Amino acid sequence: MHRRTVLKGALAAGLLPTLPRLATANPLTLTAAPGEAPLVVPDGPATKAWLYNGTAPGPVIRARQGDTLNITVQNDLPEPTTVHWHGLRVPVSQDGMPYLSQDPIAPGASFDYELPLHDAGTFWYHPHVNSSEQVGRGLHGLLIVEEPPEIAARLQADREITWALDDWRLDQQAQIAPFGNRHDQSHGGRTGNVLTVNGTYLTTTALRSGERLRLRICNTSNAQHFHLNFAPFDPWLIALDGHPVTPQKLGDSGVWLGAGQRADLILDVDTAPGTTAQVIDDAYGPDRAFEVMTWEVSDESPLRDAALDPPEALPPNPVAQPDLANAETHKLTFDGGAMGGMSEAMMEGRMLSMQELVEAGRFWSINGTVPTHLHETEPLLKLALGKTHRITLENRTRWPHPIHLHGHSFHFTDPRAGNIATIRDTALLMPDETTEIALVADNPGTWMLHCHILEHQASGMMGVVEVA
Q: Read out DSSP for 331-372?
């Protein structure tokens, strides 16, 4: 099936709400286990998937900034697993990296995570054992760290909606297609043919004219990039990867989300009652644009007569400010993939040709190296604890790569102005793009750095960064 087509009968899907399932208990238990999910139509064939607490995506976990979240992960899968808390700046022992931070959780066993919540924002959780398959089978969920109520009230939002965007590669029986495709590994990753929002295909959200929404969006897919357009609405962008930005209208630019990235928006419903509109993704060009969500504005009278003031900026999270003038400098180069120029790379202490790497199922390298076991590999970078580091990221491939660093949030820099721009935890590098990030290495440990196209990660685009 073409990735933009749908299963037979899927157009009969009901119009389901996109309100999140909440899990607010602390301590909380997440149980990873095989199950079934109605991904295509509620009364159609259920998809055999791997689920957290019986749902795909898993429950939305909510906690308050400054709290400590205690979560027991019970593994009822047929293979080991862990959970990584994407974007949270937790101690390395709680990061969920097999062997770097913990032993994998064996089938039938459990692990207790203790997560200090330094930052407010939109985060998510997923496995880091066999992650391309475990995430692709449905193991992921959102983790919302809320600001104090008096801070959130400044946004004047009437309600909040969360979207976990995911795409699934399903066959005609609505079952997940096999994994391990070398074309996926060497090209753009495993993209799907059925898009879901919060586990539901062809969703519709009911709105009321005059209301204000806070919309939290997370790209939980294995490889898909999204470029979301909201016309006729023009939302305010207020946060990226959980970190506040100066509120700014999206205008015609929309919002880009690489795999693993998040955005918080404020959307004012300023159209007339009875309006219908769609959120459109055109990341792969106008000829391959498709509907993500349908808005249906009710016939009720507007909630308010006058427009609200622009939302106030949220206070910054306590991320250390880099000292660019006194920074140590580093460089990471990303090579390989189909139509790339990589001819050889170092793996297990030997320089291997591209043919030998392909035979070993490896297609990508960082700084000319391809790891096999991260806990046994030499660090890509050794960052002095407490110091500022400027890191150039150079994508020398023909494919985009969302590069994620565990344990830290980093600042994009603007070399022309010599100042610091957006704070992120995942940098979407487009083909042949070079950018620079800066961070204070203030979280000691050995941390994973990888492409969040999970098939790229599995086939070589990963390494470790040591902070000591």
A: EEEEEESTT----EEEETTEEEEHHHHHHTT--EEETTB--S
Give me 20's structure tokens: 């999140």
Domain ranges of the chain: 10-151, 155-297, 324-467
Tell the burial category of 2 from Cβ atoms under 10 Å away from its Cβ (0-12, 13-18, 19+): exposed
How confident is the model over 26-57, as pLDDT tens digits? 789 999 999 999 888 777 789 999 999 999 99
Could you tell me the two tokens for 377? 């590999």
Using one digit for the tens of pLDDT, what is the confidence trace for 417-459?
A: 445 568 999 999 999 999 999 999 999 999 999 999 999 999 9
Provide the CATH topology of domain 10-151: Immunoglobulin-like (2.60.40)
Q: Please tell me the pTM assigned to this model.
A: 0.93
Fold of 324-467: Immunoglobulin-like (2.60.40)
Looking at domain 155-297, its CATH class is mainly beta
Separation between Cα atoms, residue 153 and residue 156, nearest integer Å: 5
Classify the C-alpha dihedral 251-253-257-262 as positive or negative. Answer: negative
